């Protein structure tokens, strides 16, 4: 019986030793946010045209779109910056007693303008959108240029790594241990892997969007069409080996 007990100890001993001798680690999340005013203004618009017949609606749509471009040009905006995405003509119909009645046709012309923001361009844009006779639904938003994104992401990532290091150092010092070397770094942690999704890595859209229907009825002079700060957040998970101070 004693021999059997000794054999069991010898068989399990190395495994137990490895389990207790594995290096201890500490894992922390480094988070940083960098805010800046966007330099890009974006107009997404929808121009609607109605007519009794399909062909007439389509031709009228093209005429109206060309007229819109000339209006923007008269206000000092390069018509080449107006990018049409699509022109769709649909039946304008209504249902009565389960029967469809075609009242005519309508078209939606979707277009977009992306331009560097300046107060002067903002004024030209509002003057163009406030033109009588143009049935436009639109929203105005602001975004970072690619150059801005590259710069801010780099800054946020550097600060996130510094944040992780500072947290780990404080924890080690307070708990009477010391950091030795980095075990692992994870970047771009998905939200499902983070206990608090609000700290996930993200380009936050803290963005003011101005959406207006029938601008001719809107007091455009009261609109404060200026970009507000947006924020980019970066997060890293850094794991350190540590040892207890003697």
Structural write-up:
This protein has 246 residues and is α+β, with helices and mostly antiparallel strands. It folds into two domains: 24-39 and 144-246, Protein of unknown function (DUF541), domain 1 (Translation Initiation Factor IF3, 2-Layer Sandwich); 44-136, 2-Layer Sandwich (Alpha-Beta Plaits), CATH 3.30.70.2970. Helix content is 33%, strand content 40%. It has four helices and nine strands. The chain has helices spanning 2-21, 54-74, 119-129, 146-174, and strands at residues 24-36, 40-51, 82-96, 99-116, 136-143, 177-187, 202-204, 210-213, 230-244. Strands 3-4-2-5-8 form a five-stranded antiparallel sheet. A hairpin with a 2-residue loop joins strand 3 (82-96) and strand 4. Helix 2 (54-74) runs antiparallel to helix 3.
């Amino acid at each position: 019986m004693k021999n059997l007990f000794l054999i069991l100890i010898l068989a399990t001993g190395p495994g137990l030793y490895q389990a207790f001798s594995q290096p201890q680690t500490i894992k922390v999340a480094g988070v940083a946010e960098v805010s800046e005013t966007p330099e890009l203004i974006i107009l997404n618009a929808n121009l609607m045209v109605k007519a009794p017949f399909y062909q007439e609606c389509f031709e009228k749509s093209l005429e109206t779109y060309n007229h819109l471009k000339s209006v923007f040009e008269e206000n000092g905006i390069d018509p080449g910056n107006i990018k049409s995405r699509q022109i769709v003509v649909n039946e304008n119909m209504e249902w009565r007693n389960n029967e469809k009645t075609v009242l005519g046709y309508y078209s939606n012309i979707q277009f977009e303008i992306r331009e560097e923001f300046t107060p002067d361009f903002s004024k030209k844009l509002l003057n163009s959108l406030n033109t009588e006779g143009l049935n436009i639904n639109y929203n105005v938003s602001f975004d970072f240029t690619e150059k801005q994104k590259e710069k801010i992401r780099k800054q946020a990532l550097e600060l996130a790594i510094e944040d992780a290091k500072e947290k780990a150092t404080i924890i080690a010092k307070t708990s009477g241990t010391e950091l030795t070397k980095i075990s692992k770094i994870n970047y771009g942690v998905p939200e499902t892997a983070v206990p608090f999704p609000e700290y996930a890595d993200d380009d936050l859209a803290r963005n003011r969007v101005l959406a207006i229907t029938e601008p001719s009825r809107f007091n455009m002079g009261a609109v404060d069409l200026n970009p507000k700060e947006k924020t980019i957040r970066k997060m890293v998970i850094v794991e350190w080996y540590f040892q207890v101070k003697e």
